[in-house]
């Protein structure tokens, strides 16, 4: 497929977009999407909020340190991806981030049921932060839900897939990757090689570059930034739903040199209590490749392997 990932224009007719998505994500699992309708002002405001947050003193950021509901500040050098399906990490990721998730009201059903990770977000004491971050989260979530609706149609799911996103599990991560020396050890990454364990990921990246996608066993494709585009990839849950038809492609971030790198990442996943099994339309008359799993169990496994806040 050459040395770059495909570009998909969401402004094309739905049947054309659906065909492009199914074909692309059956092969490489990554594309850049344009025509998504999220304004540059919305994205830029989130990047500005992120930069101002990460410029705070460490004690101010630690005031909203990551909690057991997986919301708040993740300090640089504290996340080691021991659960990676590619190669378990040997060094901590060189990145820091602020994580928000779906905001659950105190009287919400998920709070009442003690659904895993249900709760309210933590917000720093920083002017003009919560509103632009929430606005960008909402806009990118809506794009993800539209794409998932098209995937549902493309896989012949007849609503069985998209219905599990009626109350989606969403994660919005404001990432800052500090510069890493060019001669740093090879196992030092901004984000070590991994596949995403959820369903769909959208990435707004800055102009610094550094995101790489695996192509074969030992080749990595640089995902060159495109103004206004989101990088979109499918994760392990869509691979499971599609009975292996859609792929979860390994990727990594290497921020070598003298520039800081920022990105805003939206992960859109099904409700925590969703049981995920290969869709009948994707299995046909054969045997499914995967056993059913409950998404909350998948989340607990991965977060417990990476973050001390989730270790028993």
Poorly predicted runs of 5 or more residues: none
The ordered H/E elements are EHEHHEEHHEEEEEEHEEEHEH
Total number of strands: 14
The largest β sheet comes out as: 8 strands, mixed
Helix % is: 25-40%
Distance between the termini: 44 Å
* Average residue pLDDT: 92
In DSSP terms, counting alpha (H) and pi (I) runs of 4 or more, how many helices? 8
Rg, alpha carbons: 19 Å
Overall, the morphology is globular
Beta-strand level of the residues, as a percent range?
Answer: 15-25%
Class by helix and strand content? Answer: alpha+beta
Please state how the strands of the largest beta sheet are arranged side by side: 1-2-10-7-12-5-4-3
Describe this protein's structure.
With about 300 residues, this protein is of the alpha+beta class. Helices cover about 25% and strands about 20% of the residues. The chain has 8 helices and 14 strands. The strands form 3 sheets. Strands 1-2-10-7-12-5-4-3 form an 8-stranded mixed sheet. A 4-stranded antiparallel sheet has the order 6-11-8-9, with no helix packed on it. Helix 1 links the parallel strand 1 and strand 2. The longest helix has 25 residues. The mean pLDDT is about 90.
Question: What is this entry, summarized?
Answer:
The chain is α+β, with helices and mostly antiparallel strands and 312 residues long. The strands form three sheets. The chain has an eight-stranded mixed sheet with strand order 1-2-10-7-12-5-4-3. The chain has a four-stranded antiparallel sheet with strand order 6-11-8-9, with no helix packed on it. Strands 13-14 form a two-stranded antiparallel sheet. It has helices at residues 14-25, 40-54, 58-62, 109-112, 130-154, 236-241, 280-283, 295-306; strands at residues 7-9, 30-34, 72-74, 96-101, 169-177, 191-194, 200-205, 211-214, 220-222, 230-234, 251-253, 261-269, 275-276, 293-294.
């Amino acid at each position: 497929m050459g040395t770059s990932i495909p570009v998909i224009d969401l402004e094309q007719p739905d049947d054309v977009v659906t065909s492009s998505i199914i074909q692309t994500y059956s092969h490489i699992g990554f594309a850049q999407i344009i025509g998504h309708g999220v304004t540059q002002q919305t994205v830029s405001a989130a990047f500005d909020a992120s930069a101002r947050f990460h410029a705070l003193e460490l004690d101010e950021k630690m005031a909203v340190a990551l909690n057991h509901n997986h919301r708040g500040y993740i300090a640089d050098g504290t996340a080691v991806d021991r659960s990676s399906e590619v190669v378990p990490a040997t060094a901590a990721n060189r990145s820091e981030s602020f994580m928000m998730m779906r905001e659950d009201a105190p009287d919400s059903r998920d709070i009442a049921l003690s659904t895993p990770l249900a709760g309210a977000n933590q917000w720093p004491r920083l002017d003009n932060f919560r509103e632009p971050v929430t606005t960008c989260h909402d806009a990118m979530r809506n794009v993800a839900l539209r794409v998932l609706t098209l995937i549902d149609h493309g896989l012949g799911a007849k609503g069985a897939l998209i219905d599990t996103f009626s109350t989606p599990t969403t994660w919005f991560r404001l990432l800052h990757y500090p510069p890493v020396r060019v001669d740093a050890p090879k196992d030092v990454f901004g984000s070590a090689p991994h596949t995403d364990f959820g369903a769909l990921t959208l990435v707004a990246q800055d102009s610094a570059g550094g995101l790489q996608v695996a192509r074969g066993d030992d080749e990595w494709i640089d995902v060159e930034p495109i103004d206004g585009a989101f990088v979109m990839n499918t994760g392990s849950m869509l691979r499971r739903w599609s009975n292996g038809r859609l792929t979860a492609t390994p990727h990594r971030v290497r921020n070598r040199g003298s520039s800081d790198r920022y990105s805003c990442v939206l992960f859109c996943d099904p409700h925590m209590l969703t049981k995920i099994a290969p869709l009948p339309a994707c299995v046909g008359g054969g045997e499914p490749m995967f056993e059913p799993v409950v998404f909350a169990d998948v989340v607990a496994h991965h977060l417990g392997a990476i973050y001390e806040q989730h270790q028993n």
